[in-house]
Amino acid sequence: MKVFIVYCHPSEDSFTRNLRDAFIKGITDSGNEYVMSDLYAMDFKADITEQQYLRDANYRNTPFTEEDVLAEHEKINSSDAIAFIYPVFWTEAPAKLVGWFDRVWTYGFAYGDKKMKMLDKAMILCSAGNPIERLEQFGLLASMKKVMLGDRLINRAKQLEFVVFDGTSREKETREGNWNSNLEKAYEKGKSFFAEEVVFTVDDKFFTAVENSKSGEVSEQTIFCYHQKDNVIWAEYSGGSIVKGFLIGTMDEDHNLHFNYQHINKNGELRTGSCDSEPSVENGKLRFNEKWKWTMGEEGTSVIEEI
Fold it and tell me: What are the b/e assignments for 11-43, b being 16+ CB within 10 Å?
């Protein structure tokens, strides 16, 4: 099995470089292969040209993309999985990696009439100066995940994973204290990359309603964005007749969801209720079969399906 590693850091004197090396050692020690694009070392051009912009913006397959972009396409389609390794700069990937997506995710390859293969797995490994608690409290981690997993990688890999190596700023004592444990984690992520058991989770998954009782208000136009930490689950949802909604609850050992929900509809009404959801898989997509009840007493059923 082969992993395509997209690595982006301007300095070899960095924790992220050590993270990269530990991950690669794990990949090779497990008997797997890798190919890498070191974006700074190869001086990858981050700026999209006017020609490529007009090509993609007008949904055209021609003229043909630049040679360096076609080389990245080949690396992707000759691999089984992809991993991105980078430091967090102002809650985002470095500009050169953002530019990599701008140029490599072309029309006719990553979207439209796609020639990009469905990868078995995509993993983000990023180093962050802030501790994970701060990233979570201020919604920064959720923002990073939504951009990378919910936009750039959604429907392009069967399994998605976002791994943060936090507290790595040179000014923080945690940098040295966590150094060895962080590198060990990176090594294990590489070593178990293809062997790691898939953990059931709804974290960073998007769903839409495919069935609902007449008295329900969510529809196929309603999008749910789920999150999970241990057995706690929550989600934001909107679309269709829903202006904005939130739910929060728990997942039991059988992966059933139990939660309360509230939303404001387009009539300006605040609606609340409770719901129990049972998981199933249909055509390779995760579904939840829901039994819900408005606070006022009316009951119904619905089905949401992973996008």
Answer: eeeebbbbbbebbbebbeeeebebebbbbeeee
Q: 265: part of which helix (H) or strand (E)?
A: strand 257-265
Q: What is the pTM of this model?
A: 0.84
Torsion of CA 26, 32, 35, 37, to 10 degrees: -30
Residues 90 and 143 sit within 8 Å (Cβ to Cβ): no
Q: Which residues pair with 249 in a beta bridge?
A: 233, 259
In one letter, which amino acid is 133? E
User: What is the rounded average pLDDT of the residues 221-229?
Assistant: 95
Query: What are the structural domains of the chain?
Result: 2-191 (3.40.50.360), 206-306 (2.40.128.30)
Q: Counting every residue, how long is the chain?
A: 307
| Interval 190-211: pLDDT, tens | 999 998 777 899 998 999 999 9
